[in-house]
Design goal:
Layout: H1 5-16, E1 20-23, E2 29-34, E3 37-41, E4 52-56, E5 60-63, H2 69-76, H3 90-103, H4 117-125
Antiparallel strand pairs: 1-2, 2-5, 3-4
Length: 179
């Protein structure tokens, strides 16, 4: 008896319809489903890319919050045990995802990984067309930035974007799988 790929696809499709999941092995890391869709990405000051249309043909899950020190410690045994976002290297962030892949059982073809830059911006924009998900200007009431550089805040200290993601701007850098 071989593997029925059609059945596995049905299982994966059923899994993908859940709007939220919780990953127990990582301290109940909450993930939100981002459906397939498109948006105007950029412009990017980093690589001088102009604004351009991007389409994601597949949906994905992304963490509702930044991974906290407590969640990182629970999975890796390293670090602090507070509700501040973990501040680790790209390599450590990727290793965290790999560790989840060895512990969690996911449907065929699914795995934990850092999001691509496109996936991250899509989730960050959350269907909005403004510079930030809340508008075109930023203030210290919107995000941990400016005079707070060098200090982190508890996750969920600021309002969520329209899709329910917290701290997409400010606090700590967000690692992506690509540049």
């Amino acid at each position: 008896a071989g593997i029925d790929l059609n059945q596995l696809a049905k299982i994966a499709a059923g899994f993908s319809r859940k709007s939220e999941i919780s990953i127990k092995s990582a301290g109940n890391l909450e993930m939100i489903w981002c459906p397939p869709g498109g948006f105007a990405m950029g412009p990017s000051a980093i690589d001088a890319q102009p604004s351009h249309e991007v389409v994601l043909n597949k949906g994905f899950y992304l963490g509702r919050y930044e991974v906290t020190n407590r969640q990182y410690r629970e999975l890796t045994g390293k670090g602090l045990s507070d509700n501040f976002p973990v501040y680790v290297s790209w390599k450590d962030a990727a290793s965290f995802c790999e560790k989840l892949n060895t512990i969690e059982e996911l449907p065929f073809g699914w795995n934990f990984a850092l999001p691509s830059e496109v996936q991250w911006e899509y989730a960050c924009r959350a269907g909005t067309t403004t510079t930030y998900s809340w508008g075109d200007t930023i203030a210290t009431s919107n995000a941990n930035y400016n005079s707070n550089i060098g200090q982190t805040s508890d996750v969920e200290s600021y309002a969520a974007n329209p899709w329910g993601f917290f701290d997409m701007h400010g606090n700590v850098r967000e690692w992506t799988a690509d540049w």
